[in-house]
């Protein structure tokens, strides 16, 4: 067929082929070729069902199902020739099937439309990505658990406003991210459960008069059930939006952690050393070791959240059922998925490889009067002062230490007593950072014993 003739799949009523610009704006094969495996799985399930229900002869179904495997192997080995004139993956596959098996190929599209076909393919593709994200998150959580276990009692500064607040343990800080990525994991699983329904058999929008068995195709493709409304089945993209929302939230978590790694690996902090495997050098400054992986992870949220916004804008205001606007769903989701998976894997690698500089962490933990709250708590506990008053007394002691240029623990007992005469030598016990973290034994607190409990709990969850 020459380029000026009408489309062989739908061109019956057309006298002329599309303008080159029309072809360019219309074609999705440049990107939806990534749906090839899902498209062929969907078509094979559909053909088997057409035969089982007597809509198609067994011999045609067999030829179609085998021919489709040949097409898949051609796509996988790179010998398949994709054609822009054939618009999309669905018509590229079907046209090649016709070359391979002849007219029987034309019976495959019975009781089906590209609308339920693409919705099915895309659901299968997104479902695979949710499974990949599940695995990526579990691997990252395991890497964090290993860090938390190793450093359950290493002390470091805990921050609010990025100002030293109270000492915490390294393990506790790692476990905070375990909680975040754990919620991401649960969102991934929720999304998967919700989206795992089959659009196939909804046909163009209204269902079909052929006696199709939608339960059968749903089951063959691993869906829990067929979608209950054909209009919804072909026009819903909330499963893709939910994927992008979950990905966005997870990318936000990755970005926050990445930012901490950028700060922590700086010469000013020196909290961690990132491995050479996840760092780069500078072409002009020989001393530099840059945390590029962390920086790029920090940035990935931009395109992932951008995809979420872009698809939301595409979908808003679309009347039921299918509109071609919806072809714009794929590139956003493909790009977001690729980058989310990459960010998860890079973060896992960085976390596995990084080493904490425990002496720098400990020195920083003690700086900035980080145990001032412990002192105030001690005054409440041991001398019966109301907390507000204890807060005030401690403030005076901090001011005194600041004037002297020393830490709270370096004030003498006499100096302390000059501010509050009920203070005794015992106070020095709570001014040490190790005592401070060990005392925070409330559920969810930073005490090493609590951190170890949480590590054990998560290991059990991941069993
Ligand atoms: N390439 C199209 C898409 O991605 C497939 C569905 C086309 N349906 C149609 N009625 N033109 O959405």
Describe this structure in words.
- The chain is mostly helical.
- The protein has 3 domains: 20-110, Fumarase C, Chain B, domain 1; 115-363, Fumarase C, Chain A, domain 2 (Up-down Bundle), CATH 1.20.200.10; 367-462, Orthogonal Bundle (Ribonucleotide Reductase Protein R1, domain 1).
- It contains 19 helices and 6 strands.
- The chain has helices at 20-26, 29-32, 36-52, 58-77, 89-101, 114-150, 170-195, 214-220, 230-235, 238-264, 292-315, 329-353, 358-366, 372-383, 387-404, 413-419, 427-431, 433-439, 448-462; strands at 155-160, 163-169, 197-198, 225-226, 272-273, 355-356.
- Strands 1-2 form a two-stranded antiparallel ribbon.
- A hairpin with a 2-residue loop joins β1 (155-160) and β2 (163-169).
- α6 (114-150) runs antiparallel to α7 (170-195), α7 (170-195) runs parallel beside α19 and α10 runs parallel beside α12 (329-353).
- The protein is elongated, with a radius of gyration of 31 Å.
- The model has no long low-confidence stretch (mean pLDDT 95).
- Arginine binds next to α6.
- The site of arginine has 10 residues, from α6.
